[in-house]
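Model it.
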Amino acid sequence: MKHVIDIPRTAMEVFNMLPEGTRCEVIDNTLYMSPSPNYDHQDLLGDIFVMLKEATTKNQWGKVFIAPFDVYLSGEADVVQPDLIFVKDQHNSIIQKNGIHGVPDLVIELLSSNKSYDTKKKFDLYQRNLIPEYIIIDPETKEVWQYLLGEDGRYEQIASEKGRLVVSALNAQFSF
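Modeled.
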């Protein structure tokens, strides 16, 4: 008796075979795997998540998610796990049990060992998928880079300060 083994043909097929919780993403049919983040990354991520979660819950603005939580973009051809994700209440139909299927209102990435991955590869993906707001934070220096989607579909950088998170999607500010 012959056994037929289905061999994955795409990065997304490989992704779908991985155990739950595996730290990986698919961008442009390429599978990217990351090591666990360091202490500074996780400490700041937890602090910012708590601030955003408290503000969004209190004001009933929407839902905040912390990685790992899959975000399916490009008609589900790409899947990423941003460090923080915000979806406004009026867009909550994109939230499903296995992740977000569509464009969240905000993604935040904290830089880790592969800085160009967040500043170039993910930047391009988020811009291409018209995510309205993208914020990058360096956990070591507390530098913040905030980008808002312009009418031309391209990100425009907004002036920002070290240690201060200004979230346009929430019309709120936080210090860290």
